[in-house]
Description:
six-stranded mixed sheet; globular
Amino acid sequence: MHPFRKAVEAMDHAAVEALLAEDVVFTSPVAFRPYPGKAITAAILRAVMRVFSDFRYVREIASADGRDHALVFTAKVGDMEINGCDFLHMDEEGKIDDFMVMVRPLSAAQALSAAMGAQFDRVKAEAFGGAEAPAGSAGTPADGER
């Protein structure tokens, strides 16, 4: 079992964050631009854990070199069933440096977008505190986030 899967299933936010590289890039299924950086990625992942219910990984696929992983999941957003996949790439130190999520069906993706949009002020506060988001950090909701 991949350490990220184990941390998510245990709802261990600290362990999830510890697996992220400082320069991780998170690509959301509902945002136009990726979110670069560990702080915003960790805050988004905490928000997702708040938004999803009945979350479970159902399949794990790894590349031969162990640096790429696909973790297939099911969950609910409100009463909408969602299927998705976390695509992870590991850097030379074994940290996640690229994290892309894809979800289906469209109606569930739209429900996820609305639920995450409602979380976004908290996400920004968790990631950046009272400070302005760093330039290029996508510190405001991207297209489709709200």
